[in-house]
Write a structure and sequence with these properties.
Length: about 575
């Protein structure tokens, strides 16, 4: 039960007693019969009547407050839908291919959205889907090591190389590198937080030479959640950084032509020395990994459109209490003759073409259950004239059940493939609850008022940026997230104009150049470049038409490009 009901009940009861005392003073004869007073009524029957009336008034008060909250939530659902939904648990899967199970000369591609499942100690099934495409190759990493400036310059032929990362690869028998049509190798940074931060910063912005790693984790950060046309990709990427930054630690390493051998050494030169002297372990970088998110498709239990109830609870599976509804994909209504799709009320579809629309309300005090209501174009409850059934296509999660899986838990595929072993790399992250209703109105107003133009106000630019980031911070955000947000020490903005595109006929565009300065003390165990790149992408994707936002990071007197809304990577700037 909501604690607000008790507060409203006590408030209504105090008001009734106060009014009763005033009534007793004005009309003593009538009040004497009812024994009304400003304090407890000696007549137990009258006292129970007052308490019952106070309870009903409290429920009405709460329902009126919820009605206003539902309006702001519905508007926010159109602006940033993912903020109104629980963020599911995420994890990392490690796959080891079976070189004898099939032809791996062109690799085995697992597209994003590949379903997997695991069993916990109690025998409950936890479903996962991959959030990034991964191609499995019969390749393993045998050695990782830092190289000094002399070694880096000698083997790369670049005079400005100050260090390098040496990766020794081994091809699994019976394959050799000359047999593999492998132009790049997708790897995951999975070492200690300090090592991951150092590797990410170097690979993202300090690699030099013709073959530079590509930050596919940051580029595809919005794919952590299933596609939703109403959700801005930049907002999902920002939420992904706050909930699961490890899911963004993926790079594509360009591969040279393979030799007639089962070993190969990659050398990635950098224009600066590594910030840490900690030696590298072979498992600090792994091939064959993919981020997982605890989401899966499910068809709801059928509902009967009844005239006795205007609101019904959506249930994904009566036999599995661990299944929770993330969002509704679509709703169908059917009778004995036909079936048709019911559009959502808050959508861009014309209301003149449909008689019914659906609207959902999330009850946070009941494990975030979803309640479904059929309404007409005026948002009044509407039921079909004849008996009909309702069926919804859902995205579901397992909620807190995903946390029961330990590191190393084996994973199984819904469809077989040439994979010898699949397991969890580390433990899953905790799912996050959606924002509370009391915060919805403030976030709605803030999201409407704040955009990239708020950064042009001089002294208020830094506060505006921090306000933007705080909008996406979950209620359970760790202290490290707030430490990094508060670690933005300076922000300078200036209006610029530049020629966009490679064609000569293209004209000049007006834009905004944002220079970030971060406090290194706030990023002792996290990547400054990852944080800055996510901010840069968010600002670039939220620019208005015919305008651009160019972000750079001021780092030890150097200016590092981060993200460009032209689709080019910062590494090629």
């Amino acid at each position: 039960m909501d604690d607000r009901l008790l507060d409203n009940y006590l408030q209504e009861l105090r008001w009734l007693r106060s009014v009763s005392g005033d009534f007793a003073r004005r009309h003593p004869q009538v009040a004497a019969r009812l024994r009304l007073s400003e304090f407890d009524c000696p007549d137990p029957h009258v006292e129970r009547l007052l308490e019952g009336f106070a309870l009903q008034s409290a429920r009405l008060h709460q329902r009126l407050d919820d009605g206003f909250g539902e309006l702001s939530e519905s508007l926010l659902e159109q602006l940033s839908p993912h903020l109104m939904r629980p963020f599911p648990s995420t994890a990392t899967a490690c796959f080891i291919p079976d070189p004898l199970a099939g032809d791996l000369t062109r690799g085995y591609t697992m597209p994003a959205g590949t379903p997997l499942y695991a069993l916990n100690a109690e025998g409950k099934t936890v479903w996962w889907r991959t959030a990034l495409e991964q191609t499995l190759w019969p390749v393993a990493i045998d050695e990782l090591a830092w190289c000094d400036a002399a070694t880096a310059q000698l083997h790369s032929g670049l005079a400005d190389a100050r260090s390098a990362l040496r990766i020794r690869l081994r091809c699994l028998a019976p394959y050799r590198f000359s047999q593999l049509a492998m132009s790049s190798l997708r790897v995951h940074l999975c070492g200690s937080p300090q090592v991951n931060a150092a590797l990410f910063d170097l690979l993202y912005a300090h690699a030099i030479g013709p073959r530079r790693p590509q930050p596919v984790g940051v580029r595809n950060a919005s794919d952590i959640l299933p596609f939703d046309a109403a959700t801005a990709a930049s907002g999902v990427a920002l939420s992904a950084w706050m909930h699961c930054p490890q899911a963004l630690m993926y790079f594509d390493l360009p591969m040279p032509p393979g030799a007639e051998d089962d070993t190969m050494t990659l050398l990635i030169p950098f224009d600066c020395a590594p910030p840490t002297a900690q030696p590298l372990q072979p498992d600090d970088i792994r091939p064959g990994c993919a981020p997982l998110v605890n989401l899966f498709a499910r068809t709801s239990e059928p509902l009967i459109a009844e005239h006795t109830r205007s609101e019904q609870r959506l249930v994904a599976d009566h036999n599995d209490s661990a299944v929770q509804i993330y969002r509704v994909q679509a709703l169908w209504m059917s009778n004995q003759e036909s079936a048709w799709r019911v559009p959502p009320y808050y959508s861009a579809q014309g209301h003149s073409e449909s008689r019914w629309f659906w609207h959902t309300r999330r009850h946070r005090m009941q494990d975030n259950t979803l309640w479904l209501t059929l309404v007409d174009s005026c948002f009044d409850p509407a039921e079909p004239a004849e008996e009909a059934s309702l069926t919804a296509r859902l995205w579901c999660s397992n909620g807190e059940t995903a946390l029961s899986l330990a590191a190393g838990t084996p994973l199984a595929f819904a469809l077989p493939g040439p994979v010898a072993q699949a397991r969890l790399l580390g433990t899953p992250t905790a799912p996050s609850s959606p924002i509370a209703r009391r915060d919805a109105r403030w976030r709605l107003v803030s999201s409407l008022a704040l955009n990239h133009l708020s950064l042009t106000d001089g002294e208020t630019a830094l506060a505006s940026l921090k306000e933007m980031l705080s909008l996406y911070a979950p209620s359970s955000a760790s202290s490290a997230v707030w430490q990094q947000i508060n670690g933005i020490s300076d922000l300078r903005c200036e209006r610029v104009s530049e020629h966009r595109g490679g064609e000569a006929w293209r004209g000049w565009h007006n834009g905004l150049r944002v220079t970030l300065t971060l406090d290194p003390k706030a990023f002792t165990a996290s990547s400054r470049l990852l944080f800055a790149a996510i901010i840069a992408r968010y600002l670039a994707r939220n620019a208005t038409a015919n305008c651009f936002v160019q972000c750079v990071l001021q780092d030890d007197g150097r200016t590092l490009p981060l993200w460009r809304d032209t689709g080019e990577t910062a590494l090629s700037a």
